[in-house]
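FW: tagging you since you asked about this chain on Friday. Here's the raw sequence from the shared folder, copied in full. Didn't touch anything.
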Amino acid sequence: MKLQGVNEFNIFVAIFCVLTFQTLFVCSKPGPVTLPTVTNVTTASIFLCWVAPLGGNVSYGVNLSNSGQTRQLLTDQTCLNVTNLNSSTSYSFTVFAVAGDNITVSDAVTITAFTKPGPVTSPTVTNVTTASIFLCWVAPLGGNVSYGVNLSNSGQTQQLLTNQTCLNVTNLNSATSYSFTVFAVAGDNITVSDAVTITAFTKPGPVTSPTVTNVTTASIFLCWVAPLGGNVSYGVNLSNSGQTQQLLTNQTCLNVTNLNSATSYSFTVFAVAGDNITVSDAVTITAFTKPGPVTSPTVTNVTTTSIFLCWVAPLGGNVSYGVNFSNSGQTQQLLTNHTCINVTNLNSATSYSFIVFVVAGDNTTVSDSTTITAFTKPGPVTSPTVANVTTTSIFLCWIAPLGGNVSYGVNFSNSGQTQQLLTNQTCLNVTNLNSATSYSFTVFAVAGDNTTVSDSATITAFTKPGPVTSPTAVNVTTTSIFLCWVTPLGGNVSYGVNFSNSGQTQQLLTNHTCLNVTNLNSATSYSFTVFAVAGDNTTVSDSATITAFTKPGPVTSPTAVNVTTTSVFLCWVAPLGGNVSYGVNFSNSGQTQQLLTNHTCLNVTNLNSATSYSFTVFAVAGDNTTVSDSTTITAFTRPGPVTSPAVTNVTTTSIFLCWVAPLGGNVSYGVNFSNSGQAQQLLTNQTCINVTNLNSATSYSFTVFAVAGDNITVSDSTTITAFTRPGPVTSPNVTNVTTTSIFLCWVTPLGGNVSYGVNFSNSGQAQQLLTNHTCLNVTNLNSATSYSFTVFAVAGDNTTVSDSTTITAFTKPGPVTSPTVTNVTTTSIFLCWVAPLGGNVSYGVNFSNSGQTQQLLTNHTCINVTNLNSTTSYSFTVFAVAGDNTTVSDSTTITAFTKPGPVTSPTAVNVTTTSIFLCWVAPLVGNVSYGVNFSNSGQAQQLLTNHTCLNVTNLNSATSYSFTVFAVAGDNTTVSDSTTNTAFTKPGTVTSPTAVNVTTTSIFLCWVAPLGGNVSYGVNFSNSGRTQQILTNHTCINVTNLNSATSYSFTVFAVAGDNTTVSDSATITAFTKPGPVTSPTVTNVTTTSIFLCWVAPLGGNVSYGVNFSNSGRTQQLLTNHTCLNVTNLNSATSYSFTVFAVAGDNITVSDSTTITAFTKPDTIRWLNPTDVTTTSILLSWTAPQKFSDSYKIKIMNNGIVFLTKETSLNVTELLPGTSYTFSIAGIAADNKTEGDPIFITDCTNTAAVINATCVGPNYNAVLNITWQPPSVPYTRVYINNYTVYSPATSYVIGGLNYFTTYTITLINTGCGGNSTPVVLNCQTGITSPPDLSNVVLVLITPSTTSQTITFTFKPFSSSNGPVLHYAIIVTSNTANEIPDKSVLINTYNDYTNGQTDTYVATIIDVKSVNPAELSVVIGDGNVYNAYVNGPLDSTKSYKIAIAGFTELNLSAGSRASTGALKLTL
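HL: got it, structure written out here
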């Protein structure tokens, strides 16, 4: 440390000390010490050092003095700690070297230094404002000191000096944390004490402009403008009825919820500095919560002029109510303190919309409204009348009620059943009614809601009866007609019947729908008119007319006088009475034909033969419809002869005879049959008949004829002859059978003489033999073959045969040959033989042992005889069996032995690496010895033994040996089936198991194979008592599906090729690798720390290591938790975190997982809006001490975000006159990590109104000012000295002069103050010229003639607008005063035609502005549109009037119609 005011210099001194031999020690003067320095100063000590002089050894003296007091200290060192000093005191140190004689001293060097002052204590902040902090402390003990105060904020430090122990630090930023470091300064103004630091916040500025922007029934959204200065949070105290709550927020808006509706709340808002202690002055605003809406509005009483309205009051504070009711755009409002109100003076049948809202106690805050719509009651309809009545309808009309538009309902009822119709008209045709029925009609008006109805009016009316229908004459006699009809639908009616004949009419009345009209003439036409009569005996239906004849008398005595196969000639006697014709209906089998005739006889032809016809004869009256009672006669036509008789089936006692039926009707048949002169007759309805009880083999003659249905009339006959069949032979039998022949006999049938035929067949081939005998030897047959023999009798004509009789028989089979035994087991012998020649046979085998015989049957030439005893001799006798299972061949015999049983259950009961001890179970039955064949790799050896166990030695280890054991029968030849067992010798033990590769779920395990044969290996591995096994053929295995970070014990053993024999085991223990941690996440980031979490791996318990690095520098932290807060980091810096799990042995680690995260950037400083327009705000700020890569600016109003790398941003496209709150935060280089934001609120400048226009209408001295507001809401517009409030967009300025230009200035005002003015130059409109006075017409005499007048006049005043036209009005009625405007349409032609005495001569169009004088000639003939300036009459006197126009309008006829004018005479 270089002290101020002390120059650094070097001194070189040579010191010589000379020793004499006379014991005299003489030292030269030491050189002075150099560079005395003070290197460590405390409040009670100064550490003093210097550079030793050149030369011999010296010691040193130090004289220290203060305030005239001096002390001396001695030392051998070049440094000395001088203690017991007073603090903050100046000391003078004089240092000199002392020679070895402790007397001789060098020149001295002096340095002055202060001891360190003691530290100040108890720094306190006693008065804090928004821009200052008053700081005090306690002075240290010791010398006089001054003080230094370093104050710092956001890395910027200032220093203040004072001689006092209090200091008012000013020019601070509000709501800002300042660190004050206070230290004492010694008198040298260099030496300072240890510092004492205190931190304090300046007071925040008060919030401003608290506003309530959104109010609900349970919340008030409160906003305010943030104070200037540092970051603050806010406190809001809300109170109601003496109860206060406090809410805290970091935003400049707060939605205060859980409030009571319709309640007044006082909100006190204050800013809170970052220490959460220092608060600003408070600002208070009072607001009411919104009342809750009324619910369940109901209309409880409705009349034609009033509606009684009720609702349910909302929960919450005391409220009153407003009711807005409207109809057709006109709205009225009623106020009430009650929840019901009777709204009167309404129009009937009118829809009213009632909007009910609650009004809070401030009479300003209102609830959401609830709307209900209701109609007033319509007035009743009047004068219902019935205008038209039919059978199904009544046309009903009425007079509409006064009031609103209504529709109508009509209820009509009959017999308690009511229906309703709706209509918009005052007339309704009610249809679908029942005829002749009384209906009550109730008519009422329906309001527009289709619900509210008026009082009703009722009228009763009847429908017209329906006409009767279907009048019929249902019973007609010769003297009466029984008339019926169908009653009409509808009510009860009676009936009238008018009937007439030859102009004479009679009437009958009845209550029934049938009437018997009597005393009529037979076969006479009558007209009947039937009508219904309603219950009132007045109203009648339309009539229905029917004409009918009375019935004629019946014909008598019908007879059939001539009948053939196709015709019947019919006659009858005519009835008494009028002229009639006749009808003849003849029918057969339901088919009827009719013939008409005027005669009493008729030949009916074209009939079917043998058919019964019913002939019905009746008289027909003159109407060809009415008929008499009929008379019926039945007759048959003659049948035709049968044809083609044939015999279709003949038996020994019957002949089945058929023929073809004759054409015509149904007939039955007679059959006469005869033999040897004896005849019989049979009758049948069929065309076939079975004639039975005949003699066999006998000839019969059959005569067949048809019989008509009357069983009397028969046809010509037809004859046929036929024979009966012989009887069958019986009892065929076979009496002698060889391999080639069968001797056959039978019994002859009863009956006539016969011969015999024998048909015999085999396999579809048939032969026939004939004989006159009852036995026959059939030869040349095949052996063992089935033959079918069919025997039948043949009548003497050698044609007719009997039914056949069949018998089947087999020829004898040949014997089997060459029986052999081809396969022998312990319980079976497989026996084969050669089949005999001939047909198909089966076989029988009889086998016996020890006198017991059994039989087996088979279709094959081999049979396996089972269920035998082992090692036993059997005798087998074999024979062939024909297909009938009865006929057998001669037998053949063979003898054979069964095989011994095999040994069973060979097992290796003791196995070593070189031997296998083998045992087995002896076979059942018989004494045996045993042979054992054992082999390996194709080399076989045999051992013999009488025992059931054998120790096989000298074997190789882990080697598979096949042992074949068999029993040997007592003859030492026959052996049993062998039983084989394979066994392995025991493998050797594996050695040196090692875990060579470990993962989270696997351990790769290897070992050294044992000596000996090929082996596989088993590995048992276990953890926590649970053991699993894996098999492998290799000396390494990857054990998978393990739990990570888990200790496993592996037991390895060799397994012989049988996968059963195992070696002794070897065991090793290893751990699996922990699983990697997953999903590392950063859950909390600050400027100096990152809180890191991850998901623990599955598996065993682990701890964790975290390596974190930045710019190549890596550190490691260890933890037992899955979260770690990494601190002491740099802000806005990217760190790479590598996380790994550590197993319980603290050695094995998992694969690592890496995540990169940035620390938060520091907060930016000194945010200010530096340039504001109507649509933009330029934000500027100071970058944080440590770098931020970019910045995020967010508009809190709408959430729009901007990013920039600059320390300023011009936010554009904003709405004018709008308050915007911006948040700004630094963003790290990952473009994601944000620092803590700071907020600022400012308004854009208010925009000027747009599209401002002004119009001065004619005839009204006003200016109509219109404009369009800017794109955002505004509060007011200043127009000159007038103020117009939102939302108006127009204003009328009155009281102005016509035709005058005014300067109009429009200034919009809003959140951003006043807008730039919009200036309009506006002119008011025109009106009629002002009243005139002293208008002088100067006649120009030289120019005046007998037909013209010339004069001049000065223009009218233009104060109300320029006078552009003058009408010169001439009148010959000199008594007239100033004419009115109506004369302006009169022309000279009108005047000359006598239609008027006043006309317009001409109109002057003023071309120049304000001419000095106007000259006029009346009568010069000029034309102006419809006006002709015609000549004057010199005999008449005229008056002249002048009309001045500021505006002239001409009609379609080019005459003056309207305009702004003033007339003067």
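FW: The two ends are 118 Å apart (CA to CA).
HL: agreed, and The CA atoms of residues 141 and 181 lie 19 Å apart.
FW: great, closing this out.
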